[in-house]
Amino acid sequence: MYSGSESPSHEKGKKSDGRRIGTYRQIEKEEVMERLADDTIESFMNAIEERLAEGQKNKIPFSRFLEEKMDAFDYSNTSLAKKVFHRVEKKKEGTVSYVPVTRQAIGAWLRGSMPSSRDIYVTLGMAFEMNLEEINHILLETYMGYGLYCKNIDDALWIALINGLFPIDAFEDVRAHIEDILEENIQQDSRSLATMDLWVMLSEVKTLEEFYELIRSYKDEFKDGTRKFGQCLEEVIEEEYGYYDKAAWFLRDIGCLHCEAQFSKIRAGKAVVTREWLLRFCIALQPTYESIEKLLAKAQMEPLGITPAEVIIEMIARYKSNSVANSQEIWIMIESASERLRQKGYEIEEDLCRKYNSVYELPAAQKWWFSFCIGRQILKNEKNREFGYEKNGYCRFAMEDKLLFDDMNRNKKNVSFKKSAAEYMEEGIDNWQEVEFQEIPALLIEKNYVPDALDMEKFEDYCYVRRPSRFTKDFLRNDMYFYAATLYSIWTGKCYQKENGMQNVEEIQKEFIKNNLDGKALLSILAEVLGEEEDGWKSDLSSMVEAVAKVRKNQ
Hints:
Distance between the termini: 59 Å
Radius of gyration: 25 Å
Number of helices: 28
Strand content: under 5%
Low-confidence stretches: 1-30, 32-38, 255-259, 387-395
Strand order of the largest sheet: 1-2
Structural class: mainly alpha
């Protein structure tokens, strides 16, 4: 337990030489890599679960801590749930809110699972009337692996919340006001302050206006960290990808990076960088472990903690550094590991570990219209016999990422695209073969283009029936399989895995039900293409496109 003589989290972290990373750091790297060497999800899961167990060793189980506190305050699951909040981001509306957790979530924690987000731990501590030091050391350090660091502006916000300067539902408004303060051009003397002194000053602030004035007075302390982070962000992108533009389509899929202006602000050091944002960045860009540590340090945040999401990021970074695994393989491991951990009761945000989240979050009409346009483009390619070029005919099968990251992001801002999506889904397509459709650049094959060997192999193990030969039949069947696999990614936001067969179709069906769509004909064909051997296929690509065109809103 915490005693009053202990110092704030970051100061302690310097002295403890990375104590919060856990005893896992003492395991030889070669031993960990040996367990991951066979590239199986089983070995990857074993390494993750071992890391999670090491992080919680010799600590009071969270379930016991929670039960004791609930007994002391005479809270039921329902009464406590009303006092504990988690962050909900609605990308379509561009809003962020904090809503109460459910009584079922409280029950799951009492049975042994654990929350994984800081907002939950902080508001839980506030519900138990714990002070700043207690929340920082007893909850955050113990169960997340890291505490608050006052020179990170996002952490300063949490300190102010814990001290009662504003309610949780005003969190994002206060954050926005602080961003405005950081951008003020008021000339003033530059002032610096030791971390411990700033911690004390933040702890003693009594009103929100005093908090704003403190941020304004020591603005350079906070801006210096964000400015260094922006520079470091660019350096890491260049180190991982060679140059920024090559990574741009990855970055458009991450949380606030949907808004490229926000990313420009971060690069310029003018925006508040949250740990959640940085985790999304690391999941999407998949930098090396050393780069992740560098980014966290520049953002004035503590090293990776022991929450399930952060452990996955850590293990992926270590795994990737010792293999030539491609992006699709790594994403499949991320998605599979996340799902297995959720089944065991761990909390992991869905959008954090969903590769094509920017497509998944689109309105159903736009996803439907994009699905139709892809099918029509492939049919047009076949009509033009572009599949017949042996050297480059396979290249369109290596374009999934460009298709879903780049083309979809471009189209979702297109007025004509949005108008067609709304109009055709509402009124239907009388003659789908004649209708005008938006061309998809990623599927337009250049006759002299030859993809490199890695790209040609990229999706073969996960999506396709066989590597196409020079024979037309192989290309036509792979067009069908490619289209079916792409539809899965559009409607679920996940990587397609061919061994899951009918499970993939059921996931699409759930999405149709959620969006009140009638897609019986399409689901029937997808079950045939994804769930049976080639010899059992009775449909062709034309019938698949027609089935997509018939998907409608239920009346």
